[in-house]
Description:
Blueprint lengths: L6 H20 L1 H5 L7 E2 L2 E2 L6 H13 L13 H12 L4 H13 L3 H10 L3 H13 L1 H5 L9 H4 L1 H16 L2 H17 L4 H18 L4 H14 L4 H15 L8 H14 L4 H10 L5 E3 L7 E3 L13 H9 L2 H17 L7 H8 L1 H4 L8 H16 L5 H25 L8 H13 L5 E3 L5 H8 L12 H12 L2 H20 L6 H8 L5 H7 L13 E6 L6 H6 L16 E4 L3 E2 L3 E5 L2 E4 L4 E4 L2 E4 L2 E7 L5 E7 L6 E6 L4 E6 H4 L2 H7 L8 E6 L3 E6 L2
Parallel strand pairs: 5-6, 13-15
Antiparallel strand pairs: 1-2, 3-4, 6-18, 7-16, 8-9, 9-10, 10-11, 11-12, 13-14, 15-16, 17-18
Amino acid sequence: MLKFGNETNKTLLYILIAFAFSVAVRMIWVYQFSGYEAFMFNGQFMINTNDGYYFAEGARDILSGVNQKNDLSPITSAVSQLTAFFAAILPFSFESVILYMPVFLSSLVVVPIILIAKNLDNLELGFIAALLACIGWSYYNRTMVGYYDTDMLNIVLPMFLLWSIVWAIKTNQDRYLIITALDILIYRWWYPASYALEFSFFALILVYVLVYDRKNLYNYKLLALMMFAMLMVDGYIRVALVLGVFFLLRQERFQKYVYHIFAASVILFLATGGVEPIWFRLKGYVFKDLVSAGAQGLNLHFFTVMQTVREAGSIPFSEFANRISGHVLTFILSLIGFIYLAYRHKIMLFALPMIGLGFLAMVGGLRFTIYAVPVLAFGIAFLITEISLLMPNKKIKYLSMAVLTLAVLFPNIRHVESYKVPTVFSAEEVNTLAQLKQKADREDYVIAWWDYGYPIRYYADVKTLVDGGKHSGEVNFPVSFMLTNPQDVSAKMARLDVEFTERNFKSPKAFTNIEQMSTEYGFDDTNDFLLSLQTQMKLPEKTREIYFYLPFKMLNIYPTVGAFSNIDLMSGKAMKEPFFFMSRNFSDTQDTIELGRGVSINKKDQTLKMGQQIVPIRRFTKTFYDAGMHLKKNTQLMNFNSNISVIYMSNYNTFLVVDEKTYNSLYIQLMVLEEYDASLYEKIIATPHAKVYKLKI
Length: 697
């Protein structure tokens, strides 16, 4: 029986309550969509993050013991290995394991928060901070049920690291030396990009030691073990070094060598890579370039993917504040509270790296806000506990804490209720891929945009050219080109890119596929090579089948897809952007169809008004599905002098206004209109949600 007055039991009780609260709030999503079959597959909800399917593929292959060379399955990733372990020992389906892992693992964040507060002799501070941190907007968004990704431990592990650092500095006990080093080892195993945050903690401790506590040998032991754990070498080597050095540092006869050991760790750190990984991350998220250029050969220029990733874009202050604390006022009070907390307890200054990384969101993108959530939760929690101390008696003290805590929790819970994120794919889309799995071989390729790469690999068990991790400008260019160009040149590019990709697995080249194609076909200007695709040419020998997966939802990102190939590769200059306009919110008046944003169709004279410009319509096409769910279409030719056509997808309640380049693109022709060249493509699967074609050449 727990006695509430005992500090240890009280700590455990607070942890259990906060953990249960975190889990319960995350189950709201499950309750909201209970019985909604469109989100379910194999009797369980599907996950709601694309990247999750990458790790699911790896875990699946670990459990099956089947994976082939060059299929990019992440069987060595920590997430896949931990998932496979849980799936093997727990009496739940694989789908249930990956769905609920984020719920339980992310909720562990309450443990280090409350343990840090215990060090400050203020458990109520930790309890309140834990309640807020575990459901803070950005933390919830990236750790909700179904958000199966590294984020489920990406804050838990650095918070444990902060806890061990705080207790190490405060107590100088040897056990916190090894705990800190092991936490870094686990964090790096789990998330290789953790390097920058680990180094930030190290640098802050080093500053503290040099300024305030230079003569304390314990501090140099801590720094040395942290540095050995951070080396850019194989994890097994780092584990051996950490354990060996820790053993030496505990021996009395080696105390005189502590400074030498620390110096050796610094030298090894610099020799194995130093700050290079940190610069790489900053370059990707902060110093973003629109165009990247190759350093060799033809020096081609490509459109960079960071320009299209929302999580890497700058965000307004209100969103920044809401994502960290749930409300702008709460954020401001949290910041004030943390400053006051750090003034009262200097040890909390060691949390600054997480605040700094969180504030990087102002320039580096919203994904970083998650790091500041638990630390600033300490700020508002400290203010609440300080206010409660002003109350006249215990009853009012705890009542005030409860009321103020509920006040800061309310906007976050309201956000959880409104944040109804759909699954990545619908049940119908997954059924399409399940059918494709029965037709395709594991060595075959499915071409689709990178957003769909991981789910395709997981459900269809095939290869892809691009995915959530392989989507740099040079690999995106050929796929973008295929999807947004006419069927004949797209077919040739598909065969070329697949065969060159496979060839490069066997004999890697320093040049991109598109550059190799250009030079091997005798061109020193890639633009000329692309033009040559319109002519007869000898293609590489066919070694496997190629399928095109064309989902309806890709309409939403069609202009983004096109941007990656709408560029002069030799100069890096963007070419004239093809016209594409989509409307799902339109109104039919007596004389016009108002499509929105100043675009309307005049039904009487068959013209299109775009702002102040009036242009004739080349053709008007209406598509619809018959009772057997076969696509039908009616096309009315109007004015062949015009470059603009209108497509009305009646079953989708969607209007498309496009120019001839877009109208004749592979995606529009095959997915929207099902007008395919039978000599080049075979229709394999056709549903309103997605269509699959097999390449014949």
